[in-house]
Amino acid sequence: MNDAFEKLIAQALLFLPKLGASLLIFVGFWFSAEIFYKVILRLGMKSNLNPDLTKLSARVSKLTLLVLGIVTALGTVGIDISALVAGLGLTGFAVGLALKDILSNLVAGILILLYKPFRRHEIISVEGFEGQVIDIDLRYTTIQAKGKKVLIPNSALFTNTICILEPEKEQIDFPEDETISKMKQE
User: Fold this and answer.
1) Distances from the Cα of 151 to the Cαs of 9, 68, 107, 156, in angstroms?
2) What is the average pLDDT across 34-39?
3) Burial class (CB in 10 A: 0-12, 13-18, 19+), 16
4) Is the pLDDT score of 40 beyond 90?
5) CA 12 to chain centre
């Protein structure tokens, strides 16, 4: 029993430097991710880029660096990363099917930010909800509507008709088309 305990202590002492190095690597990636996040947000604000697209870019870069940090730290500890990546591929497929709605909201959010069918501070109407857009996120869009906030999933915004309402202005009279005026006369 005493011999087994000594072997366990010896193995733990051999493992501690690897664990320490992997923790240092992950902390380094974590700090880098935080710095990249803040730098991208500041550059976006200084360049007058779309704030929603800037926020998306910052989040993606932060998440990418964190995942890279985790994979690198696990490799440093001695975990076989190739088997992990293969397992993640199959797991990703199963999770993708399970989280179909969340992923559709994510993709719709990215497309809304890229195509800009509406912008922040515009008044929109969709699925019976009407209000001013106060935030466009990856998962949902927030509108302020008569004393309440409404969170509309981006997939609903991407697949349903959106009416962008303009503030009341003078009514604009468009000249009639010649064919329409002829049809009225007949």
Assistant:
1) 54, 32, 17, 11
2) 94
3) exposed
4) yes
5) 40
